[in-house]
């Protein structure tokens, strides 16, 4: 028996096995040639082995198809939740960056306007015009004139015209009581 094992290993292992399997195979299982070839045993065995391998994976894991599908669903959900939080953070930060860029553009525009105003105020003639307009400064020897129109006076809007009664200042119920009591 030991001699047989050595003889096989010397021959090359696989080649020896294939030769011995051909010798053991019945004639009906051998490949047939011709147009009307039926499915051979070898093809059936190959399909059977593929099915055994597929079912073997399930046996190794010890789970049925339903359980495997549930595990896959749980893994997909876990991945979705893992990606959801960073994605939400990314999108919110992107909108914040957009808002900050808009604010930056607005501030840059305001800075440009202030620089223009500073350049205008560096001119002594412009400073003098601003002082005359805002602070009502006059040069020595000039006579200042202040023209006030009736609509410019602060008390003109509330003043009553001569034929009208002034608006009552008391609450309505006191005015009503005064009219009823005659006082």
From TrEMBL:
Residues 90-124 form a coiled coil. Keywords: Coiled coil, Membrane, Transmembrane, Transmembrane helix. The keyword Membrane applies. It comes from the Bacteria. This is Septum formation initiator. Residues 1-42, 143-170 are annotated as: Disordered. Residues 23-33 have a biased composition (Basic residues). The chain crosses the membrane at residues 69-91. The keyword Transmembrane applies. Residues 153-170 have a biased composition (Low complexity).
């Amino acid at each position: 028996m030991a001699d047989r094992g050595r003889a096989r290993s010397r021959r090359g292992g696989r080649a020896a096995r294939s030769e011995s399997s051909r010798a053991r195979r019945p004639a009906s299982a051998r490949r047939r040639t011709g147009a009307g070839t039926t499915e051979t045993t070898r093809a059936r065995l190959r399909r059977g082995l593929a099915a055994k391998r597929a079912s073997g994976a399930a046996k190794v894991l010890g789970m049925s198809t339903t359980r495997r599908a549930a595990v896959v669903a749980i893994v997909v959900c876990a991945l979705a939740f893992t990606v959801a939080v960073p994605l939400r953070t990314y999108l919110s930060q992107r909108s914040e960056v957009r808002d900050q860029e808009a604010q930056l553009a607005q501030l840059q525009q305001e800075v440009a306007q202030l620089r223009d105003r500073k350049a205008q105020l560096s001119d002594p003639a412009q400073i003098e015009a601003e002082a005359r307009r805002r602070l009502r400064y006059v040069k020595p020897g000039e006579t200042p004139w202040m023209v006030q129109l009736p609509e410019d006076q602060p008390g003109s809007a509330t003043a009553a015209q001569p034929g009208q009664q002034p608006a009552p200042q008391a609450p309505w119920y006191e005015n009503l009581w005064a009219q009823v009591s005659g006082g």
